[in-house]
Every structure is written in structure tokens, then in C-alpha cells.
């Protein structure tokens, strides 16, 4: 349509008519005279709107799906975080249960020997390249710990205190090559000296070269004068090998220690020695021997008078 005077008048007239219809429709409410026309328009344009909506909805659904996916991803991440926290807690609980078991076993050992102990935790280990087997514990002078005190755990002899600070102390482990402790054999009371050999069994020199010793025999600490550095009766280990006696003044044994020096966590420093030597009472109960099955063979005659073996 060309922009002429007539076209402008027609546009003004159409706008005026539209406003008039709107006014009539609003005032008429549900009985509006243009309601029929509106319904007719809906009948004509409704299918078109529905088609457009069908075309547009997949895009809207996709956006909604992406949003829901983000929400599900956030929830999944939240659940994974919760699971990780639960696993960490479970791991912590497992570790705490292990440490409580260690503490309980150590207290039973201390009670059996009547040792007054100060519980401690291993917080560092020494440098292995220097051939020094040491640990650092989280108790020191302020806790009543002094140099040359015996250190044990629930299994037996761990070592002795060598250096003491206000809140920490250094312990020389029993498997260190510079470590030596007096020992006593269970039952026979044969005395000797055990020395550390790193990750090898302890080497024990018995004072009696003719002592009757066999694999499986057990040793405890003999004790020192004034109970420093060693209190008596602490389990040391089990004889794993005995060198043949060659008429020497001493006899050499190799002893597997009760303590695993690479798995130390909860230990105890003996701050008060027992009033009397506990002797062998701190040693663990001996394992019950496994019975060896025996086979009985009987000989019975058969029908031909020949003997037949039966088991």
C-alpha cells in the first residue's frame, strides 16, 4: 500500500474501530458481542499455535533436561562427597579400633608385669640409611619420661629411651646394631645378651656354652641395676635357630623378636618398675600343640588263610 492521504485515513479508522471493539468486549464480559468472533479465530489459529508449540517444545524440553541434568549432576557430586566422607570416617574408625586394640593389649601386658607406664604415640622414625633404628614419641620430660627408661608395647620389648626433650623423646629400637639387652631363658634361667641386627633376628650369646636350648624356647629381659635401662620380665622373642655347640665358652642363638619394629604405633614408657621380678608371667600363652594323626595297622587272615593288612 502506497503512503497516501487515503491510506493514512484508513489506518486511523481501523485503529479507532479496534479500540471501540476492545471497549465493547471488556464491558460486555462473558456476554460480549465479539465472543463468537474470538472463538472462530481460536478455531482457525489454534491448530497453527499447537504446531508451533510442538515445534518449540522439544527445544524447551531439551533446556529443561539440561537443567535437570545439572541438578542431577550436582546431587551426584553431593552423594559422592557424602560417600567419600563416610569412607573416610569408616577408615578412621578402623584405625581407631586398631589403636584401641593395641592400647588394650599393652595395658594387659603392663598389668601382668606390674609396670607403671606412660602411653605414647610414635610420631616419627629415624633415618634408616644411617643404620640407626629409632623412633620419636610424643611424650617427654614434662610427662615424667627420662633417659634410659624401658619402652614396650603389647607384644614385648620395643627399646629404650636415649634422648628426652620437653614434649618428645627418642627411642633406640631393640633391633638396632648398637642395642644390647640382658636376657633370661624361660624355665632354665640361662642368661645371655641379645644384640640387634637390623631386619635380621636378634643375636643372643648365652653365657653357658653347654646350655640345653632348642628352637621355640622363649626369652625375657633379665633387668638392669636399679631397673635402668631395663626392667625385668619383658618378653623379648622366640629362639628360631641355635648354632651347634663347638666347646666355646658361650653359645649363639638367633631370636625372632615378638615386636614388629616396622609397625609401631602405640607404645608405653615404663616410668615405674615392678616391685618384684615378674619372671615369666608376662610371656604370652604358649600355642597348643597340634595333635599328629596316627595310623594303626592290623593284620587279619583272609578266607585262604593268608594274612591281609587293614588300616
TrEMBL record:
<dbReference type="InterPro" id="IPR055342">
    <property type="entry name" value="MreC_beta-barrel_core"/>
</dbReference>
<comment type="function">
    <text>Involved in formation and maintenance of cell shape.</text>
</comment>
<comment type="similarity">
    <text>Belongs to the MreC family.</text>
</comment>
<dbReference type="InterPro" id="IPR042175">
    <property type="entry name" value="Cell/Rod_MreC_2"/>
</dbReference>
<feature type="coiled-coil region">
    <location>
        <begin position="69"/>
        <end position="96"/>
    </location>
</feature>
<dbReference type="GO" id="GO:0008360">
    <property type="term" value="P:regulation of cell shape"/>
</dbReference>
<dbReference type="Pfam" id="PF04085">
    <property type="entry name" value="MreC"/>
</dbReference>
<dbReference type="InterPro" id="IPR007221">
    <property type="entry name" value="MreC"/>
</dbReference>
<feature type="domain" description="Rod shape-determining protein MreC beta-barrel core">
    <location>
        <begin position="130"/>
        <end position="270"/>
    </location>
</feature>
<protein>
    <recommendedName>
        <fullName>Cell shape-determining protein MreC</fullName>
    </recommendedName>
</protein>
<keyword id="KW-0175">Coiled coil</keyword>
<feature type="region of interest" description="Disordered">
    <location>
        <begin position="277"/>
        <end position="311"/>
    </location>
</feature>
<dbReference type="InterPro" id="IPR042177">
    <property type="entry name" value="Cell/Rod_1"/>
</dbReference>
<keyword id="KW-0133">Cell shape</keyword>
<dbReference type="GO" id="GO:0005886">
    <property type="term" value="C:plasma membrane"/>
</dbReference>
